[in-house]
Write a structure and sequence with these properties.
The complex is a heterotrimer of chains A (about 250), B (about 475) and C (about 230). Chain B is of the alpha/beta class and about 475 residues long. Helices cover about 50% and strands about 10% of the residues of chain B. In chain B, the strands form two sheets. Chain B has a six-stranded parallel sheet with strand order 1-10-7-4-2-3, with helices on both faces. Chain C has about 230 residues and is an alpha/beta fold. Classes of the chains: A alpha/beta (about 250), B alpha/beta (about 475), C alpha/beta (about 230). Chains B and C meet through helix 2, helix 3, helix 4, strand 1 and helix 5 of B and helix 1, helix 2, helix 6, helix 7 and strand 9 of C.
């Protein structure tokens, strides 16, 4: 991609958004359309394969990954509302397919993958007008978004465009929330300690909303907040941006 | 091959998490080390350049490892340093015992050496009637309590002032109870001074060994390393075989990034270069210097081009300082010589990936470790690789214990998972059930209950994204 | 009489054999030392940097000229009420100090025999040790020493105070450039070292304490010979 604005993109929902945060998926598509881009959502997409990959079940991960790649044949950007899944497709697919007969095809696909906020800021340079009521939010950066994709500042840049939104940063913004996929159920005590600290940090900011790019983190943070009957809510960044900027 | 008992990191970690003192101590200590390190690297480009150079130097060392070790041996021999090779810890211990017995040595004073911990040297020597006394203040503190180090740089980081004060007043002759750090330090100085004087031999580790010059480089702040290596008539240095570099100038950037990454110091108090025993006209220094090169599984790790990166480690500890898991459970929960992220990849490779399967999964793969590693060891990538090795016996793999963590249950689980996810029609059925009946899944079902220990059950949306898009006519093909 | 070589004869062969069997894994990565090369400062700034780095770790500085440094050392010893000062009589700095040392006051003790002959005195009865240096490191602060026959190793380690003579003109940019300038990559004595400050530890609740095993105080007599 050479930085000129594309006319058409693919959208990859991701399994967590598909099942748990469909509004975020819809919002992501709406944001892209409003920016003048046609969005193609190939039917039949399921999961990027990361859970199996992280557990060493690479044949199974490849099986699933192949079927995903096959759904995106055209040379169009592939946009994902998830730093973790975008990282899997962009950074780890080449590792997973190293030495495989279809390695070149997968690499070509990986080169077209973007996380949503990254695409909105770096390629589309969207301008947002805040139509919402004043609110204080805090940002949780997903580890894979930051460390696999190098995402540092794009989401904050989008939030920063919203005049009525105050961003109160976490004390430990870059510390893992403890999700880690299967880690959260294989090591529930350690994971529990991490999420407990994360929500304490979020609560201390005085924000009413925790935002993130990642469904896994959001599920984790939300579950822990609900278990403590907290007033603090979570929202996917796509949904937040769309709701605050769309005309009623 | 006998089935070895698996070590469950989860259990030790769960126990440690319940100790508020431990958690507070480690959080405070790690926060301090993180802040100090950050202050030493104000320029991101400079930091990356230094990391890249350090990585290149260590990579080169490993690529040339057999040649460099031979060159090191020859250079040392020329300088009068006798080099010995040990494949196992048992051999290394016997070697050292032999050296000590040849001199009739009864006391050994130690500078800090993690390799000697790996060897369980102290216990071995004690069983042979030789006293091995730690002189690094942190090591001395834990030795008084019969403990092992909980961090590779700051071994007593888990201890409070009042714990140390109590220990000193109980275990040191004529010592009064004081929590004043200067007074405690002075007590240790006094006790250990006599030990340096009286010791028959001194033992040290090696931070870097230089092949070209036959030099052992030692990094320290206290002066006990210099004491242990200059005062007793015999100096024995122990080193993992990966610690060699080609030239003395190669050590400079490694030294610079080591002290900054480890404790946020631009430089240590002493950087000691030993290139031989007491020279012909010198008036002090040891009469004999010996270097023991230890394998203990490193050559096996070396055999794998990807896993070889593990051996780039310069033992700075930055990875554990930044690890959200280590910060919460402390070093002892790992039940290993090397804790933290580096320990998570080193220990399974040395002991077997099946035995340490739980440890390999005790990471959320957040990547904070890899981000700060001065020699760019891709720890999360290696963890994923070791998870693979634990459950699969791939052709050509040389990893210890590979495949021994495999279970039929997990095999079938992933097979089922893939079976559904590569068939959109089946996925559609599964998500239909999940969205319609997902909330009925009991919170205390197996695995689910691990989640609901700390969180509410996640509830699927009423209609999946795919369903909605199909209904609105948006989805294509 | 030398110690026996106690390696099992095949350990060395086995280890090297295994390492060689792993085979070649690619080209040697290039070493880009630009990050080290750009650490360069003019002479006066090197002095400032060195001083700042070392004072930050509790090193004390006394300013002196090429002519008056022995008197500066003497004045320090008088001020501190030192009973004696260990020095190396055959080193350039030691000889110069002794030549200028006025009678009365602290006793100059020569380190002129093997340590075995006076270990107890060295450990118990010496108030301070005086050594020269072969240079300094500006980037981080640090003194470079090459102990040997003239100034043995323990002089800068055992006495509770170490007084070190540093000529400003010998301060290098960095340890890396110092290694090159001093030719250490080709010829090192049995012991060489860099010292940045008094001995310290943070092992007790990460609180800094000084004078653990090495000297409690490091005094640098900084001779301004930059012209």
């Amino acid at each position: 991609m050479n930085g000129t604005k594309p006319k058409k993109v693919y959208f990859y929902g991701t399994c967590l958004v598909d099942l748990f945060f469909p509004d975020a998926g819809m919002a992501g598509i709406q944001l892209l359309r409003r920016a003048g881009v046609e969005v193609v959502f190939p039917d039949g997409q399921t999961c990027c394969g990361q859970p199996a990959f992280n557990c060493g079940y690479w044949e199974e991960a490849r099986d699933v990954a192949r079927t995903q790649v096959a759904l995106f044949p055209e040379d169009l950007p592939v946009i994902l509302p998830s730093g973790s899944c975008a990282g899997m497709m962009k950074v780890h697919y080449p590792e997973l397919f190293h030495g495989q007969p279809d390695e070149a095809k997968v690499r070509a696909f990986s080169a077209r993958v973007y996380e949503l906020t990254q695409f909105l800021v770096e390629v589309l340079d969207v301008q947002l007008e805040d139509l919402g009521e004043p609110v204080k939010v805090t940002w949780h950066s997903s580890c894979h978004a930051v460390r696999d994709l190098g995402l540092k500042g794009e989401p904050q840049a989008l939030i920063g465009q919203l005049a009525n939104v105050e961003l109160a940063p976490l004390t430990r913004e870059y510390e893992c929330c403890g999700f880690g996929g299967t880690f959260s159920v294989r090591h529930p005590e350690i994971s529990g300690a991490m999420i407990t600290d994360k929500i304490a940090d979020a609560t201390a900011t005085g924000a009413s909303l925790v935002l993130s790019t990642d469904g896994g983190c959001l599920m984790n943070v939300n579950g822990a907040l609900e278990a403590k009957s907290s007033k603090l809510k979570v929202q996917h960044i796509a949904e937040f941006l769309w709701e605050r900027t769309r005309a009623r | 091959m006998h089935a070895e008992k698996e070590i469950h990191f989860r259990d030790a970690a769960a126990k440690a998490l319940l100790d508020p003192q431990l958690r507070a101590n480690f959080r405070r200590a790690m926060d301090g080390l993180i802040t100090k390190r950050k202050a030493q690297f104000p320029d991101p480009r400079d930091l990356q350049d230094l990391r890249d150079l350090s990585t290149a130097i260590r990579s080169r060392s490993l690529l040339c490892l057999p040649e460099l070790l031979e060159q090191l041996e020859a250079s040392c021999a020329k300088n009068g340093i006798k080099v010995h090779w040990a494949e196992t810890c048992e051999q290394a211990n016997q070697l050292i015992l032999g050296l000590l017995q040849a001199k009739g040595a009864k006391t050994l004073v130690k500078g800090k050496s993690m390799v000697s911990e790996e060897m369980h040297l102290n216990a071995f020597l004690e069983s042979k009637g030789i006293e091995a006394l730690e002189s690094d203040l942190g090591e001395y503190i834990i030795q008084l309590d019969g403990e092992t180090p909980s961090h590779i740089i700051m071994p007593a980081i888990h201890k409070n002032k009042d714990q140390i004060a109590r220990q000193f007043s109980q275990k040191i002759k004529d010592a009064k109870y004081t929590e004043d750090v200067d007074e405690l330090t002075a007590m240790a100085r006094k006790v250990l001074r006599q030990k340096f004087l009286d010791a028959d031999a001194g033992l040290s580790g090696v931070n870097f060994a230089v092949a070209e010059t036959g030099t052992l480089c030692l990094v320290e702040n206290e002066g006990n390393g210099r004491m242990s290596t200059h005062v007793p008539p015999l100096h024995i240095a122990v080193m993992g075989l990966e610690k060699v570099v080609a030239r003395l100038e190669d050590v400079a950037p490694l030294y610079a990034i080591l002290t900054r990454s480890a404790t946020g110091q631009a430089v240590s108090t002493y950087f000691n270069l030993i290139t031989g025993p007491r020279g012909a006209d010198e008036k002090d220094g040891p009469q004999e210097v010996h270097l023991v090169i230890l394998d203990n599984g490193r050559s096996r790790i070396y055999a794998d081009p990807q896993l070889r990166a593990t051996l780039r480690c310069i033992r700075c500890g930055a990875c554990m300082n930044h690890c959200p898991v280590y910060t919460r459970v402390g070093g002892h929960a790992y039940e290993a010589i090397y804790p933290g992220p580096i320990g998570k990849i080193l220990t399974p490779q040395m002991e077997g990936v099946g035995v340490r399967h739980d440890l390999i999964h005790g990471s959320s793969l957040c990547g904070a470790c890899g981000e700060v590693c001065p020699v760019e060891i891709p720890i999360p990538e290696i963890l994923v690789r070791l998870r693979r090795e634990a459950t699969h016996d791939d052709v050509g793999s040389t990893v210890a214990g590979r495949g021994t963590g495999r279970t039929a249950t997990e095999d079938w689980a992933w097979r089922l998972w893939a079976g559904v996810l590569k068939r959109p029609a089946l996925y559609r059925v599964a998500t239909w059930f999940a969205t319609r009946f997902g909330r009925a899944l009991p919170a205390n079902a197996p695995l689910i209950r691990n989640w609901t220990q700390s969180r509410t059950k996640p509830v699927p949306a009423r209609r999946s994204l795919t369903e909605r898009l199909r209904a609105e006519g948006v989805s294509h093909e | 009489m030398s110690s026996p070589n106690l390696s099992a004869p095949d350990s060395r062969t086995a280890i090297l054999g295994r390492l060689r069997a792993a085979g070649d894994s690619g080209a040697l990565p290039a070493l880009d030392t630009a990050v080290l090369e750009r650490r360069q400062w003019p002479a006066a700034e090197r002095v400032t940097r060195l001083r700042k780095g070392m004072e930050a770790v509790h090193t004390e500085f006394l300013e002196a000229t090429p002519a008056d440094w022995p008197a500066v050392v003497r004045a320090f010893c008088d001020r501190e009420g030192l009973k004696n000062l260990l020095y190396g009589p055959t080193s350039e700095a030691g000889a110069a100090l002794a030549a200028a040392w006025a009678p009365g006051g602290p006793e100059l003790k020569p380190y002129d025999r093997p340590v075995e002959a006076f270990k107890q005195e060295l450990f118990g009865d010496i108030d301070a040790g005086f050594t020269g240096t072969v240079g300094g490191v500006a980037e981080t602060g640090g003194l470079l020493l090459m102990p040997g026959s003239a100034e043995p190793r323990l002089m800068s380690l055992v006495p509770p105070i170490h007084i070190a003579l540093l000529r400003a003109s010998t301060i290098q940019d960095s340890f890396w450039s110092a290694v090159k300038a001093l030719g250490w990559g080709h010829a090192l004595p049995p012991n060489a070292l860099m010292i940045s400050g008094p001995s310290k530890t943070a092992d007790i609740e990460q609180t800094l304490a000084y004078g653990v095993h090495g000297p409690k105080r490091l005094i640098v007599v900084l001779v301004d010979d930059l012209k």
